[in-house]
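Entry — protein

Goal — fold tokens:
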Amino acid sequence: MPGGRLTNEDRQHIAAALAEGLGYAEIGRRLGRPASTVMREVTRNGGPDDYGADRAHEATRHRARRHKQAKPPAPPIPDTGHGRDPQAVRDFTESFTALLVQQGLPRMEARVLACLYITDSGTLTAADLVQRLRVSPASISHAVAFLEQQGMLSRERAPGARRERYVIDDAIWLRTLQAALRMNDVLTVASQRGAEILGATTPAGARFESSAELLLLLSDAFRQVMEQWLRNQAARSA
């Protein structure tokens, strides 16, 4: 969070600004914080009509103390005879999860995806994920539904098996690129239409025409990259 954690002084400023009737965006600008940070702070501490700086600060300290309570260590990730360093695997999993979050995935979805990604089999059941991530089955269910919708994993059930398994494969980023390409194509068509309607010789029309040119180049590059990757995969399988 820009500027570090909110201080008691920050909270006093927030309370005073709310009393003035200022919005989250303006309060954030005055504090040098994102508006979303201010909104979360106010929402979880009584809302704009009942926000108290001292009470909010004490509640935050209480939550911090509770979160610092010792937790049992995470179950070790089974090694399949490859001689991996378990701590190095755990450290990498955490850093990879953080990277996925930075790329826009919600944190729980990122944790599930990373957990699947580091397994040699690329498959885990809901029970496996609950045990490894120490979260509720409902959290896993929501995360899996989101990732499946994005094409980042699939479900399978072996004949006679009672439990579904969630599966990740080597084509995960290919499907992500394909989804991005579809959206890119839609934006290209819209940009071309915008240039046509507004007139390519006008500033607004020229802007759309320039955008369409860039998006077309990007689509061509996407397609070339995907075709090359598919050729490489086929060559390895031959």
